[in-house]
Amino acid sequence: MFEKILIANRGEIACRIIDTARKKGIKTVAVYSTVDARAKHVRLADEAYEIGGAEATESYLNMEKIIEVAKTSGAEAIHPGYGFLSENETFAAMCENEDIRFVGPTADVIRLMGLKDQAKAAMQTADIPVVPGYDGENQEEDHLLQQAKSIGFPLLIKAVAGGGGKGMRLVNSETEFLPALASAKREAMASFANDRVILEKYIRKSRHIEVQVFADKVGNVVYLHERDCSLQRRHQKIVEEAPAPDLSEDMRFEIGETATKAAKAIKYRGAGTIEFIVDVENGLKDAPFYFMEMNTRLQVEHPVTELITGIDLVEWQLRVAAGERLPLTQDDIKLNGHAFEVRLYAEDPSNEFLPQTGTLYHFSHPQENQNFRLDAGVDQGDEVTIYYDPMIAKLIVWGQSRVEALRHMRRVIKDTAIAGVKTNLEFLYSIFNHKSFNVADIDTGFIDRYIDELTSREEQSFVPVLALASLTELMPHTDGNDIWDWSDGWQLNHNLKVKQTFVENGSSYDLDVTYLRDGFSIELDGSSYEVKLLKQSQDEIHILLDDKKVSGRVIKMQHDFTIFCDGMVSYLHHFIPGADERDSGKIDGNVVTPMPGKLSKLLVDNGASVSQGQSLLVLEAMKMEHTIKAPADGVVAFAGISEGAQIADGQLLLRIGEANG
Ligand code: ADP
Ligand code: ADP
Ligand code: MG
Predict the structure, then answer these.
(1) Which of 190-194, 218-222, 515-519, 653-657 is modeled with the greatest confidence?
(2) What is the per-residue pLDDT across 409-442, written as a single tens digit (0 to 9) for each?
């Protein structure tokens, strides 16, 4: 086994790898970019070296520099994690040439599986079923359009070099094809410097079921069962589980054996994932499944496999890389219980899931135990920057059954609080409370189909949140851990009336608050509610709202509140008339960037008349495209911006003015 390894990655996966290395007594070397100098993976590693600027191309993708650090630090192997250099054949080859072990398959295999067209061809040769479509050389528009027509619609355009759902477009009809092709190619070029695409028949009702395989260098191959990753948004996984619910033992065996056969056919080595798409139009029983792609690395969702098999995949990776044989044979790999993982992102579900950046002013979560595992790349106080993936952490639970695991996840999400950046916590909670999800009635269209349900709230449910905010603002002291003594100064305030205005997500709420003898009443939109404080300890508050108990967590930053209450996460601003520049200038048609990025395309001309909701420009940020839409009808005036421009956070992009004459 190695004495020392270098981890060529950052965030949660770097921390995850360090964790296993430490358990095995292996020393760890971290590398970091200038903005990551104080990042968690740097804090955890035994040694750490700066390798360049914030842009990944200058640091985490800087191959020469990383190899140089491996040599100077005496690391015998490099673990690439996922993303970045993990599927980079040049890097794998460089490592081998420098006599540093690359923790992963050989460069040849990475190359073969790296491009979707080649990978599909190799699988067909090995007699593995693949999705029908076009994966030829000819990339001319006309030719692709002809091919698309013969495949039929709907179909998928996929970047051959794609990953993480990038460079992929669903096309429903012929007229949508060429614009979608252009957009897919643009995104593919920006993300992968390769704009070639394949076309695939779109399977209307499908489940994403993938198999974890493992191989050693003497040709032993096993599968560690499957994961179901059908819950996706924009073809990106959000929730993963293992095993795949309702999969019959026969099909589990068949899909596992097929994956093993695929890995053997390409002489695979190490950890890999074979992704299948299962056509569930006629149910899951005996459903046809097709090879989609192979990821030649550790996968983001590997922890669910670890929890149901009891195997540490990173440990196996290191053992295989060090030349050991697989520790277990197929028959020894058991499947126990059920696991879920959710990806906790810094993003705003109420605003088209725009990635968020900022400082994690607050981050608290339940204690880890046998039912809950947290894989995080950040701690409270850390930054989420524009430069890297906005994933903050993964929440992973295990239960004896799916139903038990669901319960654990609901509790864990409910008891996790993050303030400073908006997150998808509430959205995840909605998923775990959805009826269909609870009975495993899932497919890859689940999130799109239920998006309105998953992102909307009942009117009434917001009152407790307002009550918590109101009370927090009224409390004379918030530093005590004891029950607040209501008699303290209370009599003085007897019958006092206060007005409060809270703004959430563009809506404002005007509260008339009246102090009563043992609490106060809130009037809102003609209804009246009575509030009594039960207990307050740090940021946790328990109240009686019209005699019903309400508990929540209130994180306050000046006049901004993040409130966690019954799975709801609310971002409130206490509007104070006069003192509030920020809110007063909002409604005049100014459009400000929601986040920094590059302006990749203007969709209308300066001075054009537009209608509300019309797409105005495309912003490229966090490696994704975001379309900015008109907030109102009117005439566009761009604020001196042009295609290709770098846009700073909060920069004015344009104004929508009234049409002249
Ligand atoms: P899939 O490739 O099937 O989506 P995963 O769900 O494991 O598999 O997602 C990993 C993908 O996400 C990578 O292929 C990469 O494109 C992207 N990615 C992963 N980690 C990072 C990271 N730290 N920074 C940027 N992109 C990342
Ligand atoms: P990536 O490399 O970005 O992970 P994949 O080829 O693995 O791309 O596809 C990502 C997701 O897109 C799949 O998990 C699935 O939900 C959906 N998808 C891919 N191919 C098809 C298809 N032919 N029909 C329907 N959905 C598909
Ligand atoms: Mg994939």
Answers:
(1) 218-222
(2) 999 999 999 999 999 999 999 999 999 999 999 9
* Cα–Cα dist 275/237, whole Å: 12
Are 298 and 86 in contact, with CB atoms under 8 Å apart? Answer: yes
Q: Which long-range contacts (CB under 8 A, 24 or more apart) does 102-107 make?
A: 102/77, 102/78, 102/321, 103/5, 103/77, 103/78, 103/79, 103/270, 103/317, 103/318, 103/321, 104/80, 104/270, 104/271, 104/296, 104/297, 104/317, 104/321, 105/268, 105/269, 105/270, 105/272, 105/296, 106/269
Tens-place pLDDT, residues 390-399: 999 999 999 9
Amino acid 409: pLDDT: 98
* Residue-by-residue DSSP string for 460-506: GGGHHHHHHHHHHHH-S----SSPP-TTTTTGGGTT-EEEEEEEETT
Query: Exposure pattern of 529-538 as b/e (b: 16+ CB <10 Å)?
Result: bbbbbeebee
Asked whether residue 211 carries a pLDDT value surpassing 80, the answer given is yes
Q: What is the pLDDT of residues 124-147, one digit of tens each?
A: 999 999 999 999 999 999 999 999
**Cα 422 from Cα 570, distance rounded (Å):** 9
Ligand 2 pocket: which residues have CB below 6 Å?
131, 156, 158, 162-165, 168, 200-203, 206, 208, 232, 235, 275, 277, 292-293, 444
What's 600's DSSP letter?
A: E
Catalytic residue among 297, 319, 373, 402: 297
DSSP secondary structure letter of residue 310: -
Gyration radius of the chain over CA positions: 27
Positive or negative torsion for Cα 327, 333, 335, 339: positive
Cβ < 6 Å from ligand 1: which residues? 11, 82-83, 163-164, 237, 295, 299-300, 388-389
Checking if the pLDDT of 489 tops 50, the result is no
Q: Is the CA virtual torsion 234, 236, 242, 244 positive or negative?
A: positive
Q: Is the pLDDT of residue 641 over 70?
A: yes
Nearest to 14 by CA among 73, 68, 86: 86
- Ligand 2 pocket test, candidate residues 156, 206, 292, most atoms within 8 A of CB: 292
| pLDDT reported for residue 495 | 61
User: Which of 139-148, 160-169, 221-230, 416-425 shows the lowest per-residue confidence on average (mean pLDDT)?
Assistant: 160-169
Per-residue pLDDT reduced to its tens digit, 39-59? 999 999 999 999 999 999 999
Which domains, and CATH codes, for the chain?
4-103 (3.40.50.20), 132-201 (3.30.1490.20), 209-233+245-458 (3.30.470.20), 460-575 (3.30.700.30), 590-657 (2.40.50.100)
Question: To test ligand 1's pocket by mutation, which of 13, 209, 212, 300 has the most ligand atoms within 8 angstroms of CB?
Answer: 300
Around Cβ 568, how many Cβ atoms within 10 Å?
18
| Tens-place pLDDT, residues 349-375 | 988 999 999 999 999 999 999 999 999
Closest ligand 1 atom to 297 CA? 7
The reply to whether 297 belongs to the active site is yes
At how many degrees (to 10) do helices 11-23 and 313-321 cross? Answer: 70
What angle do helix axes 402-414 and 425-432 make, rounded to 10 degrees? Answer: 150
User: Residue with the nearest Cα to atom 1 of ligand 2?
Assistant: 163
Nearest to 425 by CA among 293, 565, 520: 565
- Strands 197-201, 155-159: pairing is antiparallel
- From the alpha carbon of 11, which atom of ligand 1 is closest? 23
